[in-house]
């Protein structure tokens, strides 16, 4: 059986309502706050998530699209990046659940996903 996607929520996506809703649906998440990763550069969030084999979820699309391209250009790998516009918690949860039900952790490696495509 394929390993399920486990998420790391960066500072932009930390929301009690979002975290509670995901955990209530048995989605494995870790927030930047819980990890003690507040006020660190974006590349450190990506590095940290990758070292834990977690897919990073962020609203910081511009910076993480660039990081994705930079990492792949130099042969670095990451566990996956999911970028999204901010939206209602229910909509975000539905889309993240659909993604997590459709892709495994292995399928997320080095992948950049735009959550808006998972409606």
What is the topology?
Elements: E1 7-9, H1 16-24, E2 29-31, H2 32-35, H3 42-51, E3 55-58, H4 61-73, E4 81-83, H5 89-102, H6 105-108, E5 112-114
Parallel strand pairs: 1-2, 1-3, 3-4, 4-5
Helix pairs in contact: 1-5
Shape: globular
Largest sheet: 5 strands, parallel
String of helices and strands: EHEHHEHEHHE
Mean pLDDT: 96
Number of helices: 6
Instruction: Give the N-to-C terminal Cα separation.
Output: 26 Å
Assess the beta-strand content as a share of residues.
Answer: 5-15%
Rg for CA atoms? 13 Å
Helix content: 40-55%
Question: Unreliable stretches, pLDDT < 50, 5 or more residues?
Answer: none
Class per helix and strand makeup? alpha/beta
- Biggest sheet strand line-up: 2-1-3-4-5
Number of strands: 5
Output the keywords.
119 residues, alpha/beta, 13% strand, globular
Structure overview:
The protein is an alpha/beta fold. The chain is built from 6 helices and 5 strands; from the N terminus they run E-H-E-H-H-E-H-E-H-H-E. The protein has helices spanning 16-24, 32-35, 42-51, 61-73, 89-102, 105-108, and strands at residues 7-9, 29-31, 55-58, 81-83, 112-114. Helix 1 links the parallel strand 1 and strand 2 (29-31). Helix 1 (16-24) packs across helix 5 (89-102). It is globular, with a radius of gyration of 13 Å.
């Amino acid at each position: 059986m394929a390993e399920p996607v486990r998420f790391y929520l960066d500072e932009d996506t930390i929301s009690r309502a979002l975290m509670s809703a995901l955990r209530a649906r048995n989605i494995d998440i870790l927030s930047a706050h819980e990890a003690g990763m507040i006020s660190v550069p974006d590349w450190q969030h990506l590095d940290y998530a990758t070292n834990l084999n977690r897919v990073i979820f962020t609203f910081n699309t511009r910076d993480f699209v660039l990081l994705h391209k930079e990492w792949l250009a130099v042969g670095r790998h990451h566990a996956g990046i999911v970028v999204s516009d901010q939206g209602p918690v229910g909509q975000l949860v539905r889309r993240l659940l659909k993604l997590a039900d459709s892709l495994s952790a292995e399928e997320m490696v080095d992948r950049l996903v735009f959550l808006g495509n998972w409606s």
